Amino acid sequence: MTDPGGGRPRLAPGVRLHFDETRKAWVLLSPERVIEAEGPAPEVIRRIDGSRTIDAIIDELATLYTADRVEIAADVRALIAELQSKRLVLE
Amino acid sequence: MTTLHAPLGLLAELTHRCPLACPYCSNPLHLDPRSEELDTASWARVFAEAAAMGVLQVHLSGGEPGARRDLTEITAAAHKAGLYTNLITSGIGFDRGRLARLQAAGLDHVQLSIQDAIADSADRIAGYPGAHARKVALAREVAGLGLALTLNAVIHRANIARVGAIIETALGMGAGRVEVAHAQYYGWALANRGALMPTRAQVDAAMAEVERLRPACEGRLAIDLVVPDYYAQRPKPCVGGWGRRSLNVTPSGRVLPCHAAETIPGLEFWSVRDHPLAAIWARSPAFAAFRGTEWMREPCRSCAYREVDFGGCRCQALAIAGDAAAADPACALSPHHARMLALAEADAGEDAAPSYRYRDRAAVSAIPLR
Lengths: 91, 370
Description:
heterodimer, A: alpha+beta, three-stranded antiparallel beta sheet, B: alpha/beta, nine-stranded mixed beta sheet, 33% helix
């Protein structure tokens, strides 16, 4: 928690990203819950793999979308924090 | 016109056999016999059809799904179809080896029931000496294998004083999620309502205890609370709306909009033995009966919440109001609401060890250990 960019978040056990062919949408599957991963969320979630730091995820997204790193950083951190509070992401 | 949504979840009742005899069991009073259970290939076909029509999650349930010797093959078939697989189990009939084989077959998640936080009460509720200790041991194996674990506890008079201890048990087991589910009074629970119903004061204390523990669990343990209908002001959106999000396949292959739907007389259920799953979902009379809002009467028909709670539970409307198309009496707008509360208050008591009407357990010896 002292270094918010250095942690290596990972999906909690039993949580996985899945492309729903029927609805043509990315969804995050977990016990008793299906959450649609909208917009750039799937690109963030597929990088939450326990090997990348939050900083590395932000760097990759900034490159992918050729966007302002500060803006991307806020979005990525907000998404990860939301998923952590729902216990879908650990660390 | 009623919109046809694609379902998200399928509850696969693989068998009605179970070593436990919980007095709130969600199985019907008349159980499907083993001789009528769908075989492995039929379940594989059902899962493939379910995935093709948009189902994302399958809940392998029962009875005790572990009573099926082909559970690993069934799990593998669900995984192969692309479904998220959730095993809903009493924990009896599994060891580490069997769990590991299920994990290798693609199992995503285990939902384990406990009956109480203390063994003697838990075993009495389950009607099975030694069950609780075996569940605690199995939870350790689930965590040890790195499988995701949800702990489920149905709450009623005998265990409501230990809701906090149940949540602490879930934390101690390394569960990621706990369901604190107040008993739903259909089927066996309705037959045992007089022995299960807690008092309003007990319910209020238990709800407060859950809220007190919630902050400490933040980020460690998700707590899902199912509130007690009889003391509620608003009905639950039962199964997320009839024929809208989920479907249930019985051991013998009948397809139901919810697990208790067969308590409603006059509904025509189709079987996966006779029809493709997608046709059953779209056209079978039982699914059409209460889908959408066209079937509603007042006070539901003009209600602002009609597409939020869908009029609540049809089975409860039948059980209390005597009419499956009536508003769920859990709703304060129902003319039967006051009577429902009076039924709860008449049944409520503080006796922590009432006598139960247990379901048949003739199949205990049929549970394989590995």
